[in-house]
Amino acid sequence: MLQQFFLVCSGVDRDLIRDCSRGEQTKYAGIGATVFFTALMAFIASGYALYTVFDNVYTAIGFGLIWGLLIFNLDRFIVSTLRKKDSKYQEILQATPRIILAVIIAVVISKPLELKIFEKEIDQVLLKQKNDLTLSNKNQIAEQFTPEITQIQQEITDLKAAITSKEQEVNNLYETYIAEAEGRKGTELVGKGPVYKEKREKHDATLQELQILRETNAAKIATKEAAITDLITKQKTAEAETQPIIDRFDGLMARVNALGELPWLPSFFIFLLFLAVETAPIFAKLFTSKGEYDLKLQDVEDAVKTWVEQKVHQRKTLLSTDISLNNKVYSDIAEEEEVYQYKRKKARELLQLQADAFLNLQKKQF
């Protein structure tokens, strides 16, 4: 039962192979098994590849099954259409397009399985890429907010500097009128004279200005600090909104690119393995001599070709004979007097009818 299934997979004529030897049946059953398992690996590979794209098991299985059947049909077609020739050069020339197609199929099948085999290494590469993307994303977002935040911070610094400058001015005026009272500076007279009162009044006025400046600048600083807090919040929100996009950076294309950053030799050997599996049925037919099945198949095809050529030749001969007979028959009829008189009579009647019709048409116009 299993052998019959693999024979179906190989694309052989079951009526012909049934009459062949056991060895011949086993050979083509092996070719059919290779075709089947290649399609099975194609199903698994494409299913995994599509799972990384759609992240849905049922969708991946459905499309994977379709792809596996497509590969099965292609391989079966390739193997079944190869014919043994009398010359190896002709066989290789005939198989070249099929070998190229097999190489393409091997690449398509092997790449998703490489992604699965090297999944851990690919995840490490993707993690590094995600970290780089996260840092780059934060820097790009920061470039949108940092200039404005820096400007506001500078304005806050200027406001605080204005208060500090005013405080220094008040302290200097305080030191001035105290020194005047103690007689250390100014008039150098001990006591609270007119000069002392003048300097004290100037200090008090400046102190009042300082209080007003503190209140005004404190309100401005609070507003600007709130603006900075709002900008920082917006920056964090932008980072949080874009981070999921980076976290999802693990699709099929990203994994293929990450695989390209790994050492190429292991991937190359896996590709060679699938290439060997994919081309095995083709080379098996190329490098084996004509077997019993090939001879019987060639005999059947030659018989059909001969029969078709005979039918075409018979139709051509029949047509040529029929044309020759018709020419001779009509030539003999053309020489008979009776046919001539009959044709002449009918021609005269036709001319009369045409003349009457023309006369009636002319009468209607008057």
UniProtKB/TrEMBL annotation:
<protein>
    <submittedName>
        <fullName>Uncharacterized protein DUF4407</fullName>
    </submittedName>
</protein>
<dbReference type="Pfam" id="PF14362">
    <property type="entry name" value="DUF4407"/>
</dbReference>
<keyword id="KW-0812">Transmembrane</keyword>
<feature type="transmembrane region" description="Helical">
    <location>
        <begin position="57"/>
        <end position="74"/>
    </location>
</feature>
<feature type="coiled-coil region">
    <location>
        <begin position="149"/>
        <end position="216"/>
    </location>
</feature>
<dbReference type="InterPro" id="IPR025519">
    <property type="entry name" value="DUF4407"/>
</dbReference>
<keyword id="KW-0175">Coiled coil</keyword>
<feature type="transmembrane region" description="Helical">
    <location>
        <begin position="28"/>
        <end position="51"/>
    </location>
</feature>
<feature type="transmembrane region" description="Helical">
    <location>
        <begin position="264"/>
        <end position="287"/>
    </location>
</feature>
<keyword id="KW-0472">Membrane</keyword>
<keyword id="KW-1133">Transmembrane helix</keyword>
